[in-house]
Amino acid sequence: MRKYTIIATLLMTASLFLAGCQKDDTDFDEVIAEYEAQPDIDIRWDESAFNEEDDVPITDENNEYYNDYVENTDFSRSITINYNGETATVEGTVSGVLVETVGAHVSVTSAKGHVNYILTGNTSNGSFKVYSFNKFCITLNGVSITNPTGAAINNQCGKSCYLVLADGTTNNLADGPTYTEVELEDQKGALFSEGQIIFSGKGSLNVTATGKGAIVSDDYLRFRPGPHISVTSSAGNGVKGKDAVFIDGGVLNIAVNAAGAKGINSEGQVAVRGGRTTVLNSGNSRIENTDTTTCAAIKADSVLLISGGVLRLKASGEGGKGINCDRSITMSGGDVAAVATGKKDIGSPKGVKCDDTITVSGGSFYAYSAKAAPVDAAGGLTVSAPANTYVYVTKKRSVTIKF
Amino acid sequence: MGRRKRNITRFLATGLLMAWLPLSAVADDSGLILTAGAEKKINKKFTVGTELEFRTRNNWRTADRVALSVDGQYKLLPWLKGGVGYVLLIDNNPEKINYHEDGDYNNWRPSYWATRHRFTASLTASYTYKKRLTVSLRERYQYTYRPAHTTTRYDFDNTCWEDTEVKSKHKSLLRSRLKVEYDIRHCPVDPFASVEFYNSLRLDKTRLLLGADYKIKKKHTLSLFYRYQIVNDDEDSETNIHMVGLGYSFKF
Fold this sequence. Notes:
Oligomer: heterodimer
Number of helices of chain A: 2
Radius of gyration of chain B: 21 Å
Largest sheet of chain B: 11 strands, mixed, barrel
CATH architecture of chain B: Beta Barrel
Order of helices and strands of chain B: HEEEEEEEEEEEEEEE
Radius of gyration of chain A: 27 Å
Number of strands of chain B: 15
CATH superfamily of chain B: monomeric porin ompg
Structural class of chain B: mainly beta
Shape of chain B: elongated
Number of domains of chain B: 1
Number of domains of chain A: 1
Distance between the termini of chain B: 28 Å
Distance between the termini of chain A: 74 Å
Largest sheet of chain A: 12 strands, mixed
Strand order of the largest sheet of chain A: 3-4-6-8-11-14-17-20-24-26-29-32
CATH topology of chain B: Porin
Helix content of chain A: under 10%
Shape of chain A: elongated
Number of helices of chain B: 1
């Protein structure tokens, strides 16, 4: 009887002691920690020096890109334009080239090709516009041009524009918030060209856009090793090459803060094989009628090819993407970090969004999204290499592939 | 140990052992009900009472409810009683997890405490056979009002806590209970059993109950029971549950 009483008392005591002491909620601490994980890589505007090898110009005339090397064309004929406040002075003449100045707004009409226009000086109300039948070169030799009513440099020629940053110089180009449009002419950014622009030289260039895009070409853009280019845009895309953007080298810093804008944008391919490119896009989604456009550090309407270089891409606005590619992404080298830290609302922020396949066969790949899937690849993400040659880590917020 | 004490101990221990053993083997939830009540007979026909109740769930581990009730009963006929009552319910509402279509978490609202108000009106018809077996049928209309309540939830999409309002809600239902009690001759223990159906245009839940009252003294009664609740409609986040109840009542 005594034993029976003890058991009953113990059971009663245990029952009442245990009753109601615990919560029955699911333990989400680890899950929440996973969801709230911060990116492993801190992406910031990077002005530090970057060491890279000079590129060797292609000498094979049959090569598709032979023409992209300023060294392969004789630009010994030059005209120097010196900006000085509200005026500009012109030094040198070339037969068949007409240079007109209105205040510090300079316009060149060239019937003959292969002229090097050397720009120097400073103006807060000027511009440089080119009408030409042939390719030409612009050497920025310590020039600062601000055009309050349009593009600072406007190339209306569909041929190649070689933009050389003279060694050791710092150059500044800026547009204004409101453009005065010219009939039948485009001017889509502070530095605009109907033809391709090929950047070279070892100087630096700062482009500030407050009215439209910053560097825009209706053809393609090529960045060769050497230049140090900083782009800030509060109105449109940072860098847009309609047909393609090739980054072979150099330092490219881009900061964009405009609804729906892209840091680097192309309706064609984007190919990166060198240099150090940093893009910080803090813009939010843009809604026009029923269309929603989200921001991206890089947006390629065609393929994205990465074979080298350092890419640091950050989208911090609502729904922003680190990389947004309509076709496939192929990465065979380089060091890529694509980070999306914005919130999810109209758009879904992704480290990398790809409407086709992502194939990685070399380099270092890191994607992160604070609020959604780090990688969204419609065709899947494939590592094309022997299993023992890389490390592949997938977390809730990040994907890391390292060779 | 006196005879009465031994009887109380046997009464409690037997009930607990019987309830405890099968609970560990079932998939449904289990819990405890503790009650303490008092009853006062105003006159031959009118009785008032009050009761404090505490419930647990999650295999006895989690507090589920605290309730305070007051009621009055009036003997309309020798075999028919009418009654009204009010219950203040303080519920520990269980967590709620919402998912996206792809199975990913959408949001998580942890459990939270909130109050409800319940009003009841009942009619109880009873018949006693040979002063030993009593069969009763109780029909109870029950109206429960839940005021709007603001609590917090975790939004997995935006990785942040946010306020969320649990909207106010009211519900009416009819409870039908058939109960059988037996008064064992020369024994302080009176067993009882009941089945109760909750109807709100459909059968919401069913409760099966088996227990016994132990009259310690004339004014003091202990109750021990086992209750199994079968839920057909989980609108209120209720689940099938095995419960062991222990009650004490005092009659003035």
